[in-house]
Amino acid sequence: MLCGVLGVFNMVFGFLVVMVGFVVGYADAVRDAGPISRLINICVGERKTVLNPFSPEEERVYLLGLGSREAVFVAYIGSEFAGFAGVAPRWRYSDRLCHCGEPGTWVMPEHRGKGVGRALWVEGIFPWCRKHGFTHLGASVMAHNTGSIAFYEKLGFQVCGYHRKMVDWNGEKLENIFIPRSKECDLREMENCLNETKNKDLVVHLAANVGGIGYNQKYPGSLFYDNAVMGINLIEASRINHVKKIVLVGTVCAYQKYTPVPFKESELWNGYPEETNAPYGIAKKNTTNPSSSIPTTVWLKCNIPITRESLWSRRQLSPRPFTRDSRAYQKND
Prior knowledge:
The chain is an alpha/beta fold. It contains ten helices and 15 strands.
């Protein structure tokens, strides 16, 4: 699956940051063809680009053939190649869209998270695009490449849509996994849940409004409402859309305050949860009842693993987490 990203330059052209430690400049066909092709091939291996593997000679020919409205910039840290970014017209056969460009950014794995990509944009792509009349950019990003999506969003881009059934990776359809983001899909709205579960075989519900003890004490109502509604909506939407299986992640906060150790699934309904976590715990517990009753009528398999990250000793002087794995609380599977 490809995720289309659209950025408006007015959001990012108002500042200039001097990037210390990076040398950014135009790519040289002789010097940079080898490092660029090697990085592209690394990203192909990571399934983070739809490009085919490139040889150094193929890259050299490409760089020598760049047009007047195409550019490739490289970044070096000292004498070490760190990454590159390029931009070209998004549509080549329409004067009405000549202000639209398509960029790409690649960073060597050992240099990711160091600001290399940002340096390429601030010192290369942004100034060049202003000079050559590009005011809008649309980048195609693999939907599972969350690091790349986050990078573009930090530059001021916005996710504007998804192309489904588009990428064929040696016969494997990569669009089979779809991850809606909370910014564009509020699961508290039933319509959104119906849209997101349509034509799906498996739904894994990981979304939550969650925080620490202080957050639980400050927002008990929101924690109960948001988590209960999201879970119930997804279960009902999955039932309506004939989803084959749904996995809803539970929480140890759903257990009673003084649950015997080791925790057992049979104890889940045997008392009121610890007060500071009760609204969140009860909301998550609510999804176990409808999900266990639905499969008898619509053949929707439901799994509810109980997370153990918040299992702590009750001994005040020794807040040591239990190391014993909690078993999955499963129904009808």
